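Extended Data, panel c. Modelled sequence:
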Amino acid sequence: MALILLSFFIVFLLPPTNAQGDRPSPGYYPSSRVASLGFNQGFRTLWGPQNQRIEQGSLTIWLDRSSGSGFKSLNRYRSGYFGAAVKLQPGYTAGVITSFYLSNNEDYPGYHDEIDIEFLGTTTDKPYTLQTNVYMRGSGDGNIVGREMKFHLWFDPTKDFHNYAILWSPNEIIFFVDDVPIRRYPRKSDATFPLRPMWVYGSIWDASSWATEEGKYKADYQYQPFVGRYNNFKLGGCTTNGDATCRSISASPAGPSGLSSQQYAAMAWVQRNYKVYDYCADPSRDHTHTPEC
């Protein structure tokens, strides 16, 4: 009898497995409200042009011993929905960061804001980690107060392109993967929320000192080049030199902020099954610096 009850618990009560088919529908698809762009329609090369290739609106960037590569939006934004489809490199990619993010570092060097989607490279036997991060007035010199939340994914991001997006409004930041919200960061105070205009960036670079298991595994250039592929760019934002009445698209049908009950359920599923780190739950962190926790 005990064995039967245990089997019932395992089959019916435990969270779903990593099967992609288990993913619940979010019921709403904000990406469908933003037109797709080719790379040259919304971005330009920022650095490492020799490690960058543009073909039919798609972008390939790579890291080798000589350099990585990065790109930047043509416009600066004060809010919006920003996304791209990304396909990652399989195999050994430890130490390598492939990213898509918002930042105003060029406007406020040493005192900038940032909203990150970063793919942390890995060893051949472990999955990629998707790191989301939000910080304000950070220096990047070790004094930064990060707000990291990390996830594994319910699919292999090296097999095909998947859509990753950041929705940044005056009220909240929401991270999406294939239109499924994986994290919502609400504005609880001006001190804990980025409000200054930002550009949209992407890059691939060597972050061996911290990217993979806190720097345990480094970039190994016998596996070079490390490649990141991007297409289906989305820039549905309010530019700083645009119409002052511009408003960002909503993350959901629920209204100007927040998510629908179906979206919250999808996000809960992701966080229950695939979240692997939450800065608010880290007992080693000094939470006086993160009062939103």
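Residues 1-20 have pLDDT under 50 and may be disordered. This feature is highlighted in the accompanying rendering.
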